[in-house]
Amino acid sequence: MRQIISQQDAQTLFKPYFELLNNSVLEGFQKYVDAKASILGVSQYMKLNKRTKASLIHDMVSSTLHEKFQSIENVVVRHGENTNSFFTIKFADLAIARIKKLDSELKPANIQTQKTIRFNNQYTLDGFPDQPTFLYVGYTLNPTLSEIEGVYIVCRVADGLRWYIDITNELVFEQLNLVDQNVQLVNEEPRVKVKKSLQEKQRRTGTE
C-alpha cells in the first residue's frame, strides 16, 4: 500500500486550488443544466433518467476540470488510455485524484471493478506511479440532481474514510474572515482620525 498524505499536508497542497476546483465543478454543472435543457427541448416526450443525468454531470464536470487545469504548473491532467481509462489529475508528486459524484457518506459512485478496488485500497496500479496518494475530488448533489451541495477532497483507504476536506466550507470561512478583517479596519479608522486630530491640536497649542 502506498504512503498516505496527511490531511494537514493535503490542505497545504490543495489550498491554492480550492477556488478553481470549486468554480470548475459549478461551471461544469451549469454546462449540464444547459445541455439538459437543449436535449429536453427536442421533444416533449424526451426524458432523462437519474443514471443518465448523473453521467452527464460527471462528464461535464470532468471536461471542465480538464480544461481549467491542463496548463497549470505542477499539475498533470490525464485521460483515457494513459491512465487505464481513469480521468485523473496529479498534483505535484503527492496526490492523484479521480473526479466522482459522492453520496451523503462521501463514498464515490463507483462500479467496483478490480481497478477501482485497487485505487480505493491505495494499492499499486498499472499505469500509475507508486508514490502519490489516490484521492477523490468529489461533489455531492441534492436528491433531484438539480443542485451541487458541496465540493470535497476525499481520502479513502480500504473503502473507509481516512479524511476529507470540505472545499465549499473552506471558501465560505475564507470569505467570512475577509469580511471580518474589513469590518475591523472600518471600525479602527475613526480612532485613527481622532488620534491625528488630537496630534494636530497639540501642535497648535504647543502641548505636544
Chain oligomer state:
single chain
Total number of strands = 6
Low-confidence stretches: 191-195
- Rg from alpha-carbon coordinates: 24 Å
- Domain tally: 1
Secondary-structure class? alpha+beta
Mass-distribution shape? globular
Helix content: 40-55%
Which strand order do you get reading across the main beta sheet?
1-2-3-4-5-6
Mean pLDDT: 86
Instruction: Give the biggest sheet.
Output: 6 strands, mixed
Explain what the structure shows.
This protein is of the alpha+beta class and about 210 residues long. It has one domain (about 5-165). The protein is about 45% helix and about 20% strand. It has five helices and six strands; from the N terminus they run αααβββαβββα. It has a six-stranded mixed beta sheet with strand order 1-2-3-4-5-6. Helix 2 (about 20-40) packs across helix 3 and helix 2 packs across helix 5 (about 165-205). Residues about 190-195 have low confidence and may be disordered.
Q: What are the SSEs and their pairings?
A:
Layout: H1 7-14, H2 18-40, H3 50-69, E1 75-78, E2 88-91, E3 95-102, H4 114-120, E4 133-141, E5 148-157, E6 160-166, H5 167-205
Parallel strand pairs: 3-4
Antiparallel strand pairs: 1-2, 2-3, 4-5, 5-6
What are the main properties of this structure?
208 residues, 6-stranded mixed beta sheet, 5 helices, 6 strands, globular
What is shown here, in short?
The protein has 208 residues and is an alpha+beta fold. 47% of the residues lie in helices and 20% in strands.
